Amino acid sequence: MGKKVLTFLADGFEEVEAVTPIDYLRRAGVNVTIAAIGKEKTATGSHGIIVATDTTIAALEQAGQLNAASWDGVFIPGGMPGASNLAACPPVGTLYKEMAAAGKIVAAICASPAVVLAPLGLLEGKHCTCYPGMEKQADGGFAGGGKWQSSKVVVDGNLVTSRGPGTAVDYALALVELFAGKDAAKSLSESALL
User: Which letter does DSSP use for residue 113 in this model?
Assistant: First the structure.
């Protein structure tokens, strides 16, 4: 059985940054669960695209799955106000901190490294990136003490960050490599004609 990965969608998420990793990870055999932070099993992206989710945050909590032991990793799409909506949801932040402390993969793209992860202290001392200009929005220099890099994707231990919609494929392939291996990432890259 493949690795178990969770992503939360909040209204205002960037569609490309959510759907691309979901699609690529599932193609590679990774079990991705999509959870809405609202009451309904849907979320509306920043460009009006409505995505059906597998579950809700409340259902995960009720099932006892809102903990690091239930997942191998999490990934966070960017987009505004989606990133701000995720940052304003305390159970999401608690899970991300627990995942990081357990050494599980925590990945974020676009605004989310600065808006979601930096306030939680998860970028402190880590090499990371985000959407250009967002790095100055967090206290403590770059995104809460992170070491900014201009690369499309930055992997530092269990932290994966990426820049924005145009880097979503690179981000997705980095996640495939981490969760399914280099061979899976290479095969997927070839079959997608990259």
Answer: I
List the Cα angle 53/56/58 in 5-degree steps.
180
pLDDT tens by residue, 70-104: 999 999 999 999 999 999 999 999 999 999 999 99
Question: pLDDT tens digits, residue range 118-133?
Answer: 999 999 999 999 999 8
Q: Is the pTM here over 0.90, yes or no?
A: yes
Q: What is residue 147's predicted lDDT score, i.e. its pLDDT?
A: 84
Is residue 63 classed exposed, middle or buried when 0-12, 13-18 and 19+ CB atoms within 10 A define those classes? exposed
Closest CA to 37 of 71, 104, 84: 84
The residues spanned by each domain of the chain are 4-110+166-191
Beta strands in 24-116 (DSSP E): 31-36, 42-44, 50-52, 55-56, 73-76, 105-109
**The one catalytic residue among 89, 110, 128, 130:** 110
Is there a cis peptide before residue 81, judged by omega within 30 degrees of 0? Answer: yes
Contact 175, 29 (CB under 8 A): no
Provide the CATH topology of domain 4-110+166-191.
Answer: Rossmann fold (3.40.50)
Sequence-separated (6 or more) residues with CB below 8 Å from residue 148: 128, 129, 130, 135, 142
Q: Is 110 a catalytic residue?
A: yes
